[in-house]
Design goal:
The chain contains 8 helices and 10 strands. With about 230 residues, the chain is of the alpha/beta class. It folds into 2 domains: about 1-75 and about 150-234, Rossmann fold (3-Layer(aba) Sandwich), CATH 3.40.50.300; about 85-150, no CATH class. The two termini are about 30 Å apart. It holds the Pfam family ABC_tran. Belongs to the ABC transporter superfamily.
Length: about 230
């Protein structure tokens, strides 16, 4: 589904990710784990086209999308749920979802199938996005992404600022989507338990480079986590 080869990017003349290579198979959930400032969000922004690649190649679903504009990547099925959610606060929940469908050139009838997967949103369709709780906004951001019928979703820190009960709900949603639709996900996250419960594989990123891969169950062992990346289990 996704093949990244020797990818590099950054901000103006400051390199952030350097020589990153990895693959994600169809239907896989792949976690990317590392300290803050190691290039996790930069990697996702480069994959989705918000930042230009300065070297390397991005292959998606058999096509070279390295220099394709963001909207073309979205139309091919590569969608992004950014850190901080970035919903439209002044629009209703329904209109936020409609924006997700419109961005993929789809009609509003896709909303019903997404709402069946995320029924929590049904009673609040007329509510403005900006008045929702952080957890509701995160579910809305995911739902808006799903309204584009993605083949792959890039998720950036989805548990940030979210209460534990909503984190559990998001885990259930993502596992259900994997079973029913075979959705492919690349997940950047600091919450190691969240990654452990969802990911098929976990890539370690340090100073802008993929330095290794660990089985998800290793994240339950603080000694193993410290050995690979020196992070405290959260």
């Amino acid at each position: 589904m996704l093949r990244v080869t020797d990818l590099a990017s950054g901000y103006q003349k400051i390199p952030i990710i350097m020589g990153v290579s990895f693959e994600v198979g169809d239907g896989e959930f792949v976690g990317v784990l590392g300290h803050n400032g190691m290039g996790k969000s930069t990697l996702l922004k480069t994959l989705v086209g918000q930042l230009p690649a300065t070297a390397g190649r991005i292959g998606f679903a058999g096509s070279d999308i390295t220099h394709a504009p963001t909207h073309q990547r979205a139309r091919r099925g590569l969608r992004y749920v950014p850190q901080g959610r970035q919903i439209f606060p002044g629009l209703t929940v329904r209109d936020n979802l409609r924006m997700g469908a419109a961005g993929a050139g789809l009609a509003d009838d896709v909303l019903d199938e997404v709402l069946d997967e995320l029924p929590r949103l049904k009673p609040i369709l007329g509510r403005a996005g900006g008045v929702l709780s952080g957890g509701e906004q995160q579910i809305l951001a995911l739902a808006r992404c799903l309204c584009g019928r993605p083949r792959m979703v890039l998720l950036d820190e989805p548990t940030e600022g979210i209460q534990p009960s909503i984190i559990e709900e998001i885990i259930d949603i993502l596992l259900r989507l994997k079973r029913r639709s075979g959705l492919t996900i690349v997940l950047v996250e600091q919450n190691q338990d969240f990654i452990r419960r969802l990911a098929d594989r976990v890539l370690i990123i340090q100073k802008g480079r993929i330095t290794g891969e660990v089985p998800p169950d290793h994240l339950a062992d603080p000694a193993l986590v410290a050995e690979f990346i020196g992070m405290a289990v959260t």
